[in-house]
Design goal:
The complex is a heterodimer of chains A (438) and B (1003). Chain A is mainly alpha-helical and 438 residues long. Helices cover 53% and strands 6% of the residues of chain A. The relative contact order of chain A is 0.13. The mean pLDDT of chain A is 93. Helices cover 7% and strands 49% of the residues of chain B. In chain B, the strands form eleven sheets. Chain B has a 22-stranded antiparallel beta barrel. A five-stranded mixed sheet of chain B has the order 10-15-16-13-14, with no helix packed on it. A four-stranded antiparallel sheet of chain B has the order 3-2-5-6, with no helix packed on it. The chains are: A mainly alpha (438), B mainly beta (1003).
Chain lengths: 438, 1003
């Protein structure tokens, strides 16, 4: 009897001590690095730099190119999901809670936030090589500028920076574009002052991304959008047109346009780039470059299947097309009241090109034969942009900039001028601006 | 951390002090006695077998044999002893014996059938085994007898309708269909609403992991436990009772006890069943032999077509068998129970099935009079052949294909090429041919699971019991899916292969010490002290391959392979103390405190205390009552009140408080992307505070019992995945910001209207009413992605309300039609023509939570051999979101009868397209009354079985439903066991009508 009680007594003590000593409460997440690890180490900052480019190339491009592709009538939504139907209907049928609009807004903000973190924390890493740092910071500024530029194509107003601590304020898109241009200027000069090291190329940029060239190209693009025509022209002239920068996809980061147009079948290209007759040329080789297959009529619209840079899961998407630079130059010259013949020559370079393009986009058209006026040539630049830059997220912006008819009078070339601000922003941030009328 | 460490040491010291306190007072000088006798039913004097006979404060005990006799040979110190006689379904009997000079004691005991079950002894949430009448909180219990003819294949299914305050929903009619159990409403938004399940002291995994996307349906792992092995189940429904289970208990606790061996020669039980499953109702399909030539509103030209009945090829009669064998027996020192079982059940969707085979072993061994050790081991292998249905994410399912098809497309394969045609009416988007999904796709799951427990029970001195349990639950679940190259799915023409594994490992160490003492003539004290250490490790791997080769099915055959892996590791430490004082056996006061630490939360917030207090007062034990005439009517009257808190630590994942960067790969380089979910190091477990008041009343000598409980559960620090302004750079963050209440009452009435020697009628009725309300949601509304954004938490409404677009109406309530005469959604304003404009509006358009649920069980026994049983379950006032009809009646698909009106010209062309976006139109009343169970059984006592018997039974399950619901079944939920998205009908498999013919032999 006594023995039993004694043994129980000791057993209880044994079990108790085992119980109370073995509780590990500070477990480490083996699945993901946390902010503390990412933002305070060189490895973390490098990884985040690759991440921000990956995020732009997948989620960012999906939102910028596809949703604006629907609004700009380049594609037609055929899936019956509410957000797709609302985008397709456009105008006032796009509510503030449309999930596509939220995605566009949120993803651009996330790109900004990641870029801001890199710009803030990279210089704090002790012992980081200045030539690596210069590349990393310039690369981050580029993506922040691309996010700002993306917001400016879709919304009337946007914030210049993100904040987790206070409600941000909003400025008109002109200022947003100026900020993008400023960031790119900073990046261009710092890269010029301290050329990024080979380590930057190996660790961050990879072989298919020429940072300096992309900085020039996007500076040209946003300067043009901002109305800084001379600066646009100058930057476009700095771009090496035989340089090839592209987003290279793999099986884990797949081509988002292919995913939604080929696999998921959410959207399909509209025949003739979705343009009304007279705005595209039937014999334009870019038609068959970008789309093919049989004509299928859905709700009275003719749709095709996608080609171009979107035929495979891992098809690379150009960061910019060289001919965009020619068209930027032509447009800048025309809008700056420059030499019309110079602009015409640039337009004809694009129209008649049949070889030498690094991405193989050829119009194969005869030289321009219409009126040689500023107005007519600007319209021709618009036609060329619509064809050359099909599905690059610029159609809505272009159709506005070229003063094309828009809603509420016409929905042929775009069915919404600017998107409404997402509910999620308005409900959580009282500074959210009033929605645009249409 | 410092504080918690100190606390652990304090606990440790307490345990030691406690042990040494009770260590005093050893007595020697034992004498040998024989205690024997017979136990009979008081009503008909038949001997009762299987009655447990146990001497208090010892581990000495036995059970009566088939003749009702028992005999205990014991060595004990001469003194007064309490012997307890207990048999499930009978009121416990307490017998005082004086062991003195007489060496042989002979007793005759008469047990009274406990119709009202008011004296049932329970152990869940209590320090010591306690009679229900002493408890300050409600507790429900279900015995094996209550569900022996239920035709249910899992425990949660069997519980349906058996207890008050529980809403048990079978979300899918697949043979291993997922089941949700909500005790007094849901208590969380982001986590699982299912209770904590404990089997023989082992905390078991009841995860609903979707290894494969089967359209929303997922098995919940309780399906691995064979209901045939269960002896009884105790359920406590809220914090008032569950506080000592701490931070895992806010959804309630379900404690399951499996069968044990009993002293005596081996008793062999064998049962076998044959079952049939059929679809109870199919959807009326489109039989109109024309289609429109185009979608232009003014062109009504039509073309003749042939219509096909897809459903007749999708549904079938499923057959099933189930066999169980068990052997139980033992000596006074050693008892054993082992069983083997196999169930194979075909689903009503062609090619689906679920098979479960398992063995269970349980051995209890006495080590002298004071110590008992036991082990339990259960191995189960569950496999299922699945056909995807539903369509919450993927569209490759059979019923999914059916509803997205238009039934003028001939679904049969080309006789020459054997290629199945896409059943889409237009060539732009392919639609899964349901017959191809059934015949060519190959989806399956397999789970191997071991649940084991080791326990030591000791009663070293009078009144003291020490109990240690080591529980272990380890399962490996594997899911595989294959869709061959060249198919009709919208997105996987290049083939699809999926392989996902999840290994779950749960370990719990529980030490409980209880001390019971009659302090003096009027005061009894029960003290409980416990500590627990729990580990949960869940590792999973997910592999998906697309662009497959032509033949191979495994991942390696894909040109595109996406792999992911996740590991989760959670540790929990807890300790509790509970004290009950019983005053004059009438008034019982209990107080308890639980301390918890969990690695899920940061060091600042991981330490949590949960208090509990309760009181019960048995008024009918007062002298004035006992001596008054009221006793003849109200034989038992007790009031009780209880207060408690519990937490919900399992609402979030192991690392959800951190900002976890997602790994990505790009341009051949590894990278990370900032998460959409911003970390919040300051989050803590949700905390529920529950108050309950109740009364238990027995009428007519306890032939009729009534249990009534009102409760109010307040959840504070409710975790929400709060939307952040996107300009923060993040999408959302978990915050302890919301509140939730569940108020309601539950009523249980149990009685024996007729109790004759050769005819008895027992009836049980339950009624439960719960009102859930969520508040303090930032922005007032939070949509759940799982319900296509149409399901939300809305301030002031119950969780899971349907929140979406609604009809534009004129002031008189009639529909405001557009120029074309079609209905339209309400928008922000009206234009000059009085038409809606300015963007669609949303509001609460429905609520899936029923206003009340009720059940009625009637049981008749004719003679000693024949019995009937029927159970009706009712649910009233819950809405169902009929997405199935929304799709099937739309012009683009149009396979359901509802679209015919448009083809016939009875409504304007374009009506279905207009209704498509008006979600209010698709909300239906999901109230129902179902004949859940009905059975008849006849017991034979053939000579060849000796003292054994044989029972033949015929049972039916879900035979009919009385409802106004137009879809398959108002009970199912395509979102599976989702907590927020309920009542969402999107071609989920309906619950079958089941018939079971069985034979059960005991010898």
């Amino acid at each position: 009897m006594k023995r039993f009680v004694k043994s129980i007594f000791w057993l209880a003590i044994l079990i108790c001590s085992a119980l109370f000593s073995g509780c590990e409460m500070d477990t480490v997440n083996p699945n993901n690095p946390t902010d503390a690890e990412v933002l305070s180490t060189q490895e973390g900052i490098v990884a985040l730099s690759i991440g921000v480019r990956q995020f732009y190339a997948t989620s960012g491009i999906e939102a910028l190119y596809l949703y604006q592709g629907v609004t700009g009538r380049e594609t037609k939504g055929i899936a019956t999901f509410t957000n797709v139907l609302e985008l397709g209907a456009g105008g006032s049928a796009i509510p503030n809670n449309n999930s596509s609009i939220l995605n566009l807004w949120l993803r651009m903000q996330r790109i900004m936030s990641m870029s801001e973190d890199i710009v803030e924390y990279a210089p704090q890493i002790s012992g980081i090589d200045p030539a690596l740092l210069s590349g990393i910071v310039a690369h981050a500024k580029l993506f922040k500028a691309m996010a700002l530029g993306g917001l400016a194509t879709a919304f009337e107003q946007a914030n210049l920076a993100t904040s987790t601590t206070e409600n941000v304020t909003f400025v008109p898109r002109q200022q947003v574009l100026e900020e993008a241009v400023r960031l790119l200027d900073e990046a261009i000069s710092s890269v010029a002052a301290t050329p990024p090291s080979g380590a930057f190329t190996t660790l961050v940029a990879g072989s298919s991304f020429d940072l300096q060239n992309v900085l020039y190209a996007y500076s040209a693009r946003y300067n043009l959008m901002a109305g800084n025509y001379q600066a646009a022209l100058d930057r476009a002239n700095q771009v090496n047109l035989s340089g090839r920068s592209e987003f290279e996809y793999n099986t884990q980061s797949i081509n988002p346009i292919w995913d939604y147009l080929v696999t998921q079948n959410y959207y399909k290209p509209r025949a003739g780039f979705g343009l009304p007759a007279g705005l595209f040329y039937e014999d334009d080789q870019r038609l068959s470059f970008y789309m093919g297959g049989e004509d299928v009529v859905v709700d009275g619209d003719v749709i095709k299947s996608i080609n171009g840079f979107f035929t495979e899961q891992m098809s690379s998407i150009p960061v910019f097309l060289p001919d965009e630079m020619k068209l930027i130059k032509a447009e800048a010259i025309l809008r700056n009241n420059g030499e019309i013949t110079e602009a015409l020559a640039l337009i004809n370079e694009v129209r008649t090109q049949t070889s030498g393009d690094v991405f193989g986009v050829y119009a194969g058209l005869p030289p321009y034969s219409g009126d040689i006026t500023q107005e007519a040539l600007l319209l021709e630049v618009y036609r060329q942009r619509c064809a050359e830059l099909y599905l690059t997220g610029q159609k809505v912006e272009d159709s506005r900039r070229f003063g094309r008819p828009g809603p509420p009078t016409s929905t042929e070339e775009r069915n919404r001028n600017f998107y409404p601000y997402p509910d999620q922003e308005r409900l959580n941030n009282p500074n959210t601006p009033a929605d645009p009328e249409i | 951390m410092v504080i918690s460490f100190k606390f652990k040491q304090v606990c440790f010291v307490c345990v030691i002090l406690f042990c040494s306190w009770v260590y005093a007072g050893q007595v020697l000088g034992q004498t040998r006695y024989v205690i024997k006798g017979i136990v009979k039913d008081r009503l008909d004097q038949t001997p009762l077998s299987g009655v447990s006979v146990k001497i208090d404060n010892t581990v000495i005990g036995t059970v009566t044999n088939v003749r009702g006799e028992f005999e205990l040979n014991v060595s004990l110190v001469p003194a007064s002893y309490t012997i307890r006689y207990a048999l499930i379904g009978y009121a416990a009997y307490v017998d005082k014996v004086q062991l003195g000079s007489e060496a042989t004691i002979n007793r005759e005991i008469l047990l009274r059938e406990d119709v009202s079950r008011m004296d049932e002894v329970v152990v869940t949430g209590t320090a010591v085994a306690t009679s229900k009448r002493e408890l300050g909180n409600a507790i429900s219990s279900v015995n094996a007898r209550d569900f022996e003819n239920s035709a249910a294949t899992s425990i949660d299914q069997a519980l349906s309708g058996k207890i008050s305050g529980a809403q048990i929903t079978q979300n899918s009619g697949n043979p291993a269909g997922g089941i949700s159990v909500r005790l007094r409403g849901t208590s969380t938004v982001v986590g699982s609403g299912d209770p904590l399940y404990i089997v023989d002291g082992v905390i078991i995994n009841n995860n609903s992991t979707e290894l494969l996307d089967l359209g929303g349906y997922a098995q919940n792992r309780l399906v691995d436990i064979n209901p045939n092995d269960v002896e009884r189940i105790e359920i406590i429904k809220g914090a008032a009772a569950a506080a000592i289970y701490g931070s895992r208990a806010s959804n309630g606790v379900v404690q399951i006890f499996t069968k044990k061996g009993k002293e005596g020669k081996p008793v062999i039980t064998f049962s076998t069943q044959l079952r049939t499953n059929t679809v109870r109702k199919t959807l009326p399909y489109n039989t109109y032999p024309y289609i429109f030539d185009n979608t232009a509103a003014d062109d009504l030209s039509q073309t003749a077509v042939e219509r096909y009945d897809f459903q007749s090829d999708i549904f079938r009669t499923g057959l099933g068998t189930e066999s169980n064998v068990s052997v139980a027996g033992g000596t006074a020192q050693t008892q054993y129970y082992f069983s083997g079982s196999y169930m194979g059940n075909q689903g009503i969707i062609d090619q689906t099935n679920f098979k479960r085979g398992g063995v269970r072993l349980r051995i209890d061994q006495n080590l002298g009079n004071k110590i008992k050790v036991g082990i339990g081991a259960n191995y189960v292998l569950s496999t299922s052949a699945e056909i995807p249905n539903g369509g919450m994410e993927e569209a490759y399912g059979a019923l999914t294909g059916f509803i997205f098809s238009n039934n003028f497309v001939n679904p049969y394969p080309d006789p020459v090429t054997e290629i199945y045609p896409s059943t889409a009416p237009s060539s732009v988007v392919r639609r899964t041919n349901p017959l191809e999904a059934i015949n060519r796709f190959d989806f399956g799951q397999r789970t191997g699971r071991f649940i084991g427990n080791f326990n030591i029970q000791a009663t070293p001195v009078e009144g003291l019991s020490i109990n240690y349990v080591l529980g272990y639950d380890n399962a490996t679940q594997i899911g595989t899916g294959y869709i061959p190259v060249g198919n009709t799915t919208p997105t996987y023409d290049g083939g699809y292969s999926r392989r996902a594994d999840q290994t779950t490992y749960l370990l719990n160490n529980d030490l409980n010490i209880a001390y019971e003492k009659q302090v003096n003539g009027w005061l009894k004290s029960s003290t409980g002290l416990g500590a627990t250490y729990q580990v949960e490790k869940i590792y999973s791997t997910n592999l998906t391959a697309t662009q497959l080769g032509l033949i191979g099915q495994t991942i390696d055959n894909g040109a595109t392979i996406v792999a992911s892996e996740n590991r989760s590791d959670i540790n929990i430490f807890g300790a509790f103390v509970q004290q009950t004082f019983g005053i004059r056996d009438k008034l019982f006061v209990t107080g308890a405190l639980r301390y918890d630490e969990s690695s899920v939360f940061g060091s600042e917030d991981r330490a949590q205390f949960y208090p509990k207090a309760s009181v019960s007062y048995s008024l009918s034990d007062e002298a004035f009552w006992q001596n008054g005439s009221v006793l003849n009517v109200v034989s038992n009257f007790k009031v009780r009140a209880s207060y408690g808190q519990a937490g919900n630590m399992s609402a979030i994942g192991a690392y959800a408080r951190l900002s976890n960067y997602d790994p990505v790969s790009f341009s051949g380089q590894p990278g990370v992307v900032s998460p959409s979910l911003l970390g919040n190091l300051g989050i803590k477990p949700e905390r529920q505070t529950e108050m309950e008041f109740g009364t238990d009343i027995g009428f007519f000598n306890d032939r009729l019992g009534l249990e009534f409980t009102y409760y109010n559960k307040d959840v504070k620090d409710l975790l929400f995945s709060v939307n952040l302004p996107p300009t923060s750079g993040y999408g959302s963050q978990l915050q302890n910001i919301g509140t939730m209440t569940n108020k309601g009452f539950e009523l249980l009435l149990r009685g024996a209207p007729v109790q004759k020697e050769n005819f008895t009628w027992n009836a049980t009725a339950t009624f439960s009413k719960n009102k859930n309300e969520v508040n303090d949601i930032p922005g007032g509304m939070l949509a759940f992605s799982g319900g296509f954004g149409q399901v939300a938490a809305v301030n002031g409404y119950p969780l899971g309300t349907f929140y979406s677009t609604y009809f534009a109406r004129n002031e008189d309530g009639s529909l405001l039609l557009n120029a074309a005469g079609l209905p339209q959604t309400e928008q922000a304003g009206r234009n000059a023509d009085g038409q809606p404009t300015g963007g669609n509006l949303s509001k609460v358009i429905g609520d899936p939570n029923p206003a009340w649920i009720a059940s009625l069980i009637n049981e008749f026994n004719v003679g000693k051999n024949l019995s009937f049983r029927a159970q009706l379950d009712a649910s009233y006032g819950g809405d169902v979101f009929n997405f199935t009809r929304r799709v099937g009646e739309r012009n683009l698909y149009g396979g359901l009868e509802g679209y015919e009106a448009e083809l016939r010209g009875e409504v304007p062309k374009g009506t279905s397209a207009a209704l498509w976006s008006i979600f209010e139109n698709w909300i239906e009343d999901g109230s129902y009354v179902k004949l859940r169970e009905v059975s008849v059984s006849y017991t034979l006592r053939p000579k060849f079985l000796g003292t054994g018997n044989m029972r033949l039974s015929l049972a039916g399950r879900n035979l009919f439903s009385i409802d106004d619901y137009s879809g398959y079944d108002p009970e199912i939920n395509a979102a599976g066991q989702s907590n927020g998205v309920r009542g969402f009908d999107f071609v989920e498999v309906p619950i079958p009508r089941t018939f079971v013919l069985g034979v059960n032999m005991t010898f």
